[in-house]
């Protein structure tokens, strides 16, 4: 991805006139958003409103599902990622994603963390000592090193769900992404594990732009700096979390956050 495109560098993500269809069904309608760097932005709204579809536009994951048509612009880190010459491998290097259920690879904890490095580097080009440092740094950043430093050869799928989700975040970090997308990352976790993942997100926001899809209104209030409310594929309101929940400008937003809709 080149940084020479005409995006506003004060925003990590911008969309202009973004529309998306699954076959004949229009899932996104003229979406225009600006997401600032260094904060957590929550995408909220009722089921089927387009939150996850929008999130997946930012790294073009939607295209994996077939029969998808996208128009408009999606500028990520200043570059329109839908330009034909864009490398999807490089895009997903810079824009990492954490999914709804933890999805560690069925290999060791160590190999999970270095997986991205191996994919993006020539075979044998990274010294073992460097990989060892990378694993330690990534696990320390997600607060797993103390628990797992003596278990690095254990199979990652044997970890607790909270540990698996943290490991999936750690797997992104060696690639030094600038944006991390999270699609309901706590939906499979209990309340205490959710709290710890939210604390981790708060620590990571200092280094990464984080965009999270959540159905949990309490989580959106606790964890995000800004909220973007969607309804029927459109953006209804985008403001600070405090304004969305306590001073919404649109009656549809007010109905949703008060639990009268969706």
Keywords:
262 residues, alpha/beta, six-stranded mixed β-sheet, four-stranded antiparallel β-sheet, 10 helices, 34% helix, disordered N terminus
Describe what you observe in this structure.
The relative contact order is 0.18. The termini are far apart. Helices cover 34% and strands 24% of the residues. The protein is built from ten helices and ten strands.
Put the structure in a nutshell.
This protein has helices spanning 51-57, 88-94, 109-120, 128-141, 145-148, 161-172, 191-204, 217-223, 241-246, 251-257, and strands at residues 13-22, 25-35, 40-44, 68-76, 79-80, 95-98, 179-183, 209-213, 226-231, 234-240. By secondary structure, the chain is α/β, with parallel strands linked by helices. Strand 1 (13-22) and strand 2 form a beta hairpin.
Layout: helices, strands, pairs:
Blueprint: E1 13-22, E2 25-35, E3 40-44, H1 51-57, E4 68-76, E5 79-80, H2 88-94, E6 95-98, H3 109-120, H4 128-141, H5 145-148, H6 161-172, E7 179-183, H7 191-204, E8 209-213, H8 217-223, E9 226-231, E10 234-240, H9 241-246, H10 251-257
Parallel strand pairs: 3-8, 3-9, 6-7, 7-8
Antiparallel strand pairs: 1-2, 1-4, 4-5, 9-10
Helix pairs in contact: 3-6, 4-6, 6-7
Main beta sheet strand tally, sense and closure: 6 strands, mixed
Order of helices and strands: EEEHEEHEHHHHEHEHEEHH
Radius of gyration: 19 Å
Q: So how many helices?
A: 10
The strand order across the widest sheet is: 6-7-8-3-9-10
- Distance from N terminus to C terminus (CA atoms, Å) equals 38 Å
Secondary-structure content class: alpha/beta
- Nearest-integer average pLDDT: 93
Number of strands: 10
What is the share of helical residues?
Answer: 25-40%
Q: List segments where confidence is low: pLDDT < 50 over at least 5 consecutive residues.
A: 2-6
| Strand residue percentage | 15-25%
Q: Estimate the global geometry from the Cα principal axes.
A: globular
């Amino acid at each position: 991805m080149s940084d020479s495109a005409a995006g506003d560098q004060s925003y990590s993500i911008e969309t202009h006139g973004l529309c998306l269809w699954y076959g004949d069904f229009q899932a996104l309608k003229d979406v225009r958003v600006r997401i600032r760097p260094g904060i957590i932005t929550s995408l909220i709204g009722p089921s089927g409103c387009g939150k996850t579809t929008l999130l997946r536009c930012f790294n073009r994951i939607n295209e994996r599902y077939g029969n998808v048509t996208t128009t408009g612009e999606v500028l990520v880190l200043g570059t329109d990622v839908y330009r034909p010459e864009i490398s999807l491998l490089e895009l997903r290097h810079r824009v990492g994603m954490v999914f709804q259920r933890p999805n560690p690879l069925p290999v060791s904890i160590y190999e999970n963390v270095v997986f991205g490095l191996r994919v993006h580097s020539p075979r044998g080009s990274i010294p073992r000592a460097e990989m060892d440092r990378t694993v330690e740094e990534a696990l320390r950043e997600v607060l797993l090193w103390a628990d797992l430093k003596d278990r690095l050869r254990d199979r990652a799928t044997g970890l607790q769900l909270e540990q698996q989700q943290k490991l999936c975040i750690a797997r992104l970090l060696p690639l030094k992404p600038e944006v991390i997308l999270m699609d309901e990352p706590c939906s499979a976790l209990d309340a205490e594990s959710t709290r710890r993942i939210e604390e981790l997100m708060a620590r990571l926001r200092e280094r990464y732009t984080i965009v999270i899809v959540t159905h949990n209104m309490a989580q959106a209030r606790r964890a995000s700096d800004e909220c973007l409310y969607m309804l029927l594929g459109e953006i209804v309101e985008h403001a600070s979390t405090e304004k969305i929940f306590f001073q919404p400008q649109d009656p549809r937003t007010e109905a949703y956050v008060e639990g009268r809709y969706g």
